[in-house]
Amino acid sequence: MRKLTIAILFALGLHGSATAGFTEGANAYNARNYALALKEITPLARAGNADAQHLLGLMYYMGRGVARDYKQAFAWHYKAALQGKADAQYVIGAMYYTGNSVPQDQKLAVQWFRKAAEQDHPDAQHALGLMYRYHVAGMPQDVVIAYMLWNLAAANGHRNAIEQRASLARQMTQEQLEEAQALSRNWKPGTPLPAQSRTGGGGA
Fold first, then answer.
1. Using CA atoms, how far apart are residues 73 and 80, in angstroms rounded to an integer?
2. How confident is the model at residue 20 (pLDDT cuts 50, 70, 90)?
3. CA-based Rg of the chain, rounded to a whole angstrom?
4. SS (H, E, C) the chain
5. pLDDT at 2 over 80
6. pLDDT band for position 185 (cuts 50, 70, 90)
7. All domains of the chain, ordered by start, with CATH?
8. Considering 4, 9, 74, 146, which has the largest number of Cβ atoms within 10 A of its Cβ?
């Protein structure tokens, strides 16, 4: 079995927020003025702003403006994840998958990856696709679902998903490809992802 590794890649382009102060904090973070970012973000995170909680979690994870502290990183990301922040849900999934600062729990990792993937988060879709492709983390091997997930991630510009989708397509039957394409077309962000396909079980 090919070993699955998931790297947490924080190629983070922070999006704007309607909350006053977050934009200033995000701009400071992107400008690498981490002291100002911490000053702007911390009160918002404590007040329950999910965007700020996610960014503060990243700062603790990366050791930017604060001492690196994975337990704090997890705690702040978890607060944001519970509020539905897809970026934070992906990080929580990855931390559970690797056992970084929390007990390793692949079942919980899958649950959080799925929550983020169902919000059209490309990294989470890519990660779930790997799990389906290589039958890891308790997931059934299903090449149709893997292709569907990589197709969705590819639509959002995920380069690894584009490459893996192309490689997988060469091993799939026409019937499997047609089902995967139909599943991709019919799925809408914010709705459940299929747990299994009709033709993709058992691999390719």
1. 11
2. low
3. 18
4. CCCCCCCCCCCCCCCCCCCCCHHHHHHHHHCCCHHHHHHHHHHHHHCCCHHHHHHHHHHHHHCCCCCCCHHHHHHHHHHHHHCCCHHHHHHHHHHHHHCCCCCCCHHHHHHHHHHHHCCCCHHHHHHHHHHHHHCCCCCCCEHHHHHHHHHHHHHCCCHHHHHHHHHHHCCCCHHHHHHHHHHHHHCCCCCCCCCCCCCCECCC
5. no
6. very high
7. 22-104 (1.25.40.10), 118-186 (no CATH)
8. 146
pLDDT one-digit tens code per residue, 69-113: 999 999 999 999 999 999 999 999 999 999 988 999 999 999 999
Longest dimension (CA), the chain: 55
CB distance 176 to 143 below 8 Å: yes
Count of residues making up the chain: 204
Displacement of CA 166 from its chain's centroid (Å)? 21
Scan for tokens 């397509």, then name that residue: 169
AA letter at 128: L
Q: CA 34 to CA 48: how far, in whole Å?
A: 20
CA atoms of 201 and 197, how far apart (whole Å):
7
